[in-house]
Amino acid sequence: MRRLPPVLVEDGCSRELVSLIRTILAACKEISFRVGQGALSGVLGSTLDENIQGETQKKLDVLSNQLLKDILLESGYVKAIASEEEDTTVAGNPDAKYIVAFDPLDGSSNIDINSLVGTIFSIMEVDKESDPADPTIFLQSGRKQVAAGYVLYGPSTMLALSTGKGTRIFTLDKTHGSFLLTHDYAKIPADTNEFAINASNQRFWTAPMQQYIEDLLAGKTGPRGKNFNMRWIAAMVGDVHRVLCRGGLFTYPEDTKDPNKPYKLRLLYEANPMAMLIEQAGGLAHTGQENILDIQPTEIHQRVAVILGSKNEVEACLGYHQ
Ligand code: F6P
Ligand code: MN
To answer: Which positions are annotated as binding substrate (predicted)?
Structure first.
């Protein structure tokens, strides 16, 4: 099985980009170890703090953020970082040309129940002259990502990565600490009979989404003429990983549960990197109004509606939104 660095070199990635990805993965290996230790390392449970988004931070959220932040800033490969757990961006090496946005530990409500969590990251390029302390350097559309990926801390630790030449899946060999290529060029089937949505929000969805899900649930005798299965992991990394492996539709749609927060998932470090991985594997990622990768961001912690996965099924869902 092939190791990650030569695969990236073969894809034409610069030496600097390969080093940056390896730096991110060095932090992820440590997070993987801590997550694996669970209660033994005393890192379960919450802190007394909230992040800028008003969510209570888990101890592992804080630890994972610190690990990524320290190792990235120390490496010299990044001009700045943006993180779900940081109020604003943090400046790095003024001479570097890459910036990284990340969700250090996605799905953190799963931490204390020993269920799936992961790290999501998005790498973009900026002008060498740009100011590392200027947060607006992060306001680039997802199409400009030079690489995107996630590391899933499950029964095995897996990396899904795209540098714009397909999406590949690697598995961490914990005896040697190498990510080995275990699934070249993931290909999401265009059709599916599996979907993922937090159905407890049903009464808060928009009319088109209510109708779409109602038709899926109607099964064989309904307008779709086939039975559908439902799954919900409550960690976007876990749900997207399943979609990459066997297809499906994943959505966190607009809702009116909290009028100040119509969308849940964050554009820069959740929706955009996942959209790149999904598109590069032949799927589609949309908000219902536009392709996620075409959105021009206006804020670092901006949220969006997400409908992604098997192409024909996402298109079927979009048909209800027109
Ligand atoms: O990061 C936000 C997130 O935890 C995603 O990973 C996940 O898909 C979603 O929120 C879970 O939402 P809910 O708590 O509504 O199930
Ligand atoms: Mn998250």
So the answer is: 106-109, 198, 264
107 assigned to a ligand binding site: yes
pLDDT digits (tens, 9 = 90+) for 116-148: 999 999 999 999 999 999 999 999 999 999 999
Ligand nearest to the CA of 104: 2
Question: 194-321 maps to which CATH number?
Answer: 3.40.190.80
Give per-residue pLDDT as tens, 254-310.
Answer: 999 999 999 999 999 999 999 999 999 999 999 999 999 999 999 999 999 999 999
User: 46 falls in which pLDDT band (50, 70, 90)?
Assistant: confident
CA 10 to centroid of ligand 1, rounded, Å: 35
pTM: 0.97
**Residue 10 is which amino acid?**
E
Is residue 299 marked as binding? no
How is the chain split into domains, by residue range?
4-183, 194-321
| Cα 39 to Cα 60: distance, rounded to the nearest angstrom | 11
Which CATH code is given to the segment(s) 4-183? 3.30.540.10
- Mutate which of 109, 201, 240, 306 for ligand 1? The one with the most ligand atoms within 8 Å of its CB, which is 109
Q: What is residue 292's three-state secondary structure?
A: helix
**Span from the CA of 264 to the centroid of ligand 2 (angstroms):** 9
Question: From atom 13 of ligand 1, which residue's Cα is the shortest distance away?
Answer: 234
Which ligand is located closest to the Cα atom of residue 235? 1
Question: What 3-state DSSP class applies to 137?
Answer: helix
